[in-house]
Amino acid sequence: MPVALRSVLLLSVLQSLAQGVPDAVAAKRQAAQLREQYDFVILGGGTAGLTVADRLSEAFSRKTVLVIEYGDIEYGRGFFDPPQVEHAPGFPGASTWTFNSLPSPHVANQTAKVVVGKVVGGSSCVNGQFFDRGSRHDFDAWDATTGIEQFDRSEHKWNWEGIFPYFKKYEVLTKGVFKSVTFTEPPDASVKAFGYTWDDSVYGGTTPIHSSYPPFQWADLPIVRDALKEMDIPIRQECAGGDKAGMCWVPTSQHPTTSRRSHSGLGHYAAVNATRDNYDLLVRHQAVRVLYPDSQVQGGRPPLWNGFGPAEVLQKAGISTVVDLPGVGANLQDHSASIIQWNYTKPLDLSPLPSDMYDPAFIADATAGFDETPARGPYTLAMRNSAIYIPLANISADFESIITTIKQQLAKTPTSPDMMAGYQHQLALLLELHSNPSAPSLEVPFGGGTSLSTVNLHPFSRGSVRLNATHPLEQPVLDYRGGSNPLDIAVSVAHLRYLRRVLSTPTMRARGAVEVAPGADVATTEQLAEYARRSVQLSLHHPCCTAAMLLREMGGVVGKDLKVHGVDGLRVVDMSVALLLPSSHTSSLAYAIGEKAADIIIQEWTQAG
């Protein structure tokens, strides 16, 4: 059944983010159940998509909103829920897409495994629930378009001041009072036990997406925390207010009382749909084209053209081209990581430890505690909720050589006027970020245990995601091209050198910590580089930036109003519009993008009458 539409919001497959059990009865499963026309059609019921649907259906009670989602309504388990006994590498919650990339020859032909949510709520149903925000410097760089006249004139700002209100919008901080949305202050007992800190002023809002601190930590967490402190890492009260160079506690996207996962499917569909007769959800359907009359597509194209992207790629797949946009699917970025590991040669004499999860009696009590109200015990922990964020300028003797190499790459003349020009623009921004002593380059999340990851927050390599030309309705082809820019290996070496210093701290020496990986015999730059190439995890499930907010002539896909270049009524609203990866996990930004997009659309439609 064709659906007439006045505005379409296109959400990319790679960034559907959600979890939970919305009302399965309310969802529609047959196109015949739909109305004959809708004012807004949203393709993709993920983190950002459902946020936009909620806001538009609320703002325009007389206009109709349809969300079309490939997945179905399913329960979104937490990242670490019973009956798991450890943090498994899989994603055991709701249904997922699992994408395996092509081999990356620059990192020993390793492949990236990318897992995203195939469910109402998208990846917010299956992610690690780590709910941090990027640095203010990330967004100021994203919005740094000085000299790009068309962007300079835009009223929509995506710098820190332009995005910060939308981070605040989806959380409200309360204490002792249940509200529909919450970053909830931890109880006094948890504050006393773990030393939690936060800043009330960076929270606030009116939507039912919860974040909180868990009421449990493993007993060996203070060992790692104390060792990192001994590396003179500054301690921050809060990292969600734009300044995050240092060590801080990170909220988890879960309900503060039940410790169950909080996600877009619950907060932006189940919590509101029953009261909105203008909001429909169609599940288990895939959109294949958008119909346009001649007047709505620049260039006077025929009415049934149905592809937006690189013309050559579309033609190979047998798809007609509405608008030739080389940037669609390009500029793929993701966080990557290597690890250091160690063993303690002296007894810890602490309890509880992660190893206790193999004790049947401990597991039984942990399971019972998770079902209590309020929930208690290890299953409330999700993944972990501590991290350090360190600027490259503050950690490495290799800093100057890395900066010099960036400058040398910048000095090279672009080989093409579009994609390379866009990359050169990004490279200039990355030079500023890596030179800034307040802009993090390295993230190290931790929660006890005997390993730490070096997360590369601002990679230089770029990949792509393209249609499968033989089977265009099936999974796309991912080419991560990990390590294709050698700067990523150089940065990884700097990160590894810095982090392995933790094992030389007094706290670690007192415990007899002995490095297992990379190992004491891996010492030279060449050896560490080889370790980085062979050990790197190419994807931390944070794919982004494949419909970048930049000029069309520079490989961009959308403008600052999120409209697709050359098309009326079509926007992209998800993590793909980011120009650069943030120095954070991506779910909080996906919500903020959805909130800001909804405001832009509401303002435009209100002014138009």
UniProtKB/TrEMBL annotation:
Taxonomy, superkingdom: Eukaryota
Assigned protein family: Belongs to the GMC oxidoreductase family.
PROSITE patterns xrefs: GMC_OXRED_1 (PS00623)
Domain Glucose-methanol-choline oxidoreductase N-terminal: 117-140
Originating species: Apiospora hydei
Keyword annotations of the record: FAD, Flavoprotein, Signal
Lineage of producing organism: Eukaryota, Fungi, Dikarya, Ascomycota, Pezizomycotina
Stretch forming the signal peptide: 1-20
Keyword ATP-binding: no
Name under which the protein is recorded: Glucose-methanol-choline oxidoreductase N-terminal domain-containing protein
Pfam families named in the record: GMC_oxred_C, GMC_oxred_N
